[in-house]
Structure formats: structure tokens, C-alpha cells
Amino acid sequence: MFFALDLATVTHAIQLAVAPVFFLTAVAAMIGTVAGRLARIIDRARVLEGRVEAATPDNLMTQAYTELKLLRQRAALVNICIALLTLCALLIGTTIVVLFLGETTVLPTPRIATISFLTGVSSFLLALLCFLTETLLATRILKFGRY
């Protein structure tokens, strides 16, 4: 395998490979946001589970079970979202490595870089759809118009 030794080629390779790093920053911020939502879901579920264990069967328990079911759905969506964002980060990282190798070696990498990048972006878009769906589910339980 031949590696480029001249400074201009290496510099250009670094410039080319750094562009997707900004996308990685966005993905990392999104993972932090979604993980925070998961923490809130878990906290709320623990409170409701405590109420269910301490209460006698009545209408409040029915409401608690309904909300726990919704929280399970939200947690599942958040977990899928985190998995898609992690996959996205791995694919963008792969794109960075492939772009750098494509510039500094004689390996034919454009097709791999293209597929990796587009799959990563698709994964990010699917994660955004999961995030939107989870947000809509979260607001469905609110009782804005009932007061």
C-alpha cells in the first residue's frame, strides 16, 4: 500500500476528512439530548411504579398503568433513536477514515465513502423521525384543553 508523503496531499486529505466531523458533533449533541429524554422517561416510570405498588386498586392505578404503557412506547422509540444515532456516528467515522485513506493511498475508496456517508445520513434522518414521534407521544399525555 502506497502512502502519500508530500505535505500538500496530506493537508488536503485532512481538510477533506474533517468536513464530516462537524456532522459528528451534531450527532453527539443529538445523542445527549435523546439520552436526557430517556433519563426523564425512566425517572417518571419509577415514580409511577412506586405509586402502583403503594396504592389500592382504583381509578388512579388505571391512569398509572396507561401512562406506564405510554412510557414504555416512548422508551422503545428513544432506544431505537439512540441506536440509529450510534450507527450514524460509526458510519460517519468510517467515512472520515475512508476519505483520508482515499486521498493518501492508491486505494479506490469513493464508492465506499459515498455509501457510508449516505447510509449515515439516512440513519440520522430515521433517528430524527423517531425523535419526532417520541416527542408527539410525550405531549399526547398532557391535558392542556381539559382545564
Description of the structure:
With 147 residues, this protein is mostly helical. The chain has one domain. Helices cover 85% and strands 0% of the residues. The protein is built from 3 helices and no strands. It has helices at 7-54, 59-104, 110-140. The longest helix is centred in the first third of the chain and has 48 residues, at 7-54. The protein is rod-shaped. The model has no long low-confidence stretch (mean pLDDT 86).
Distance between the termini: 71 Å
Secondary structural class: mainly alpha
Sheet with most strands: none
Number of strands: 0
Shape: rod-shaped
Tell me the number of structural domains: 1
Q: Specify the helix fraction band.
A: over 70%
Share of residues in strands:
under 5%
Mean pLDDT: 86
Name the helix and strand elements from N-terminus to C-terminus, one letter apiece.
HHH
Radius of gyration: 23 Å
Separate helix tally? 3
Uncertain segments: none
List keywords for this structure.
147 residues; mainly alpha; 85% helix
List the SSEs and their pairings.
Blueprint: H1 7-54, H2 59-104, H3 110-140
Helix pairs in contact: 1-2, 2-3
Compact description:
With 147 residues, this protein is an all-alpha fold. It has helices spanning 7-54, 59-104, 110-140.
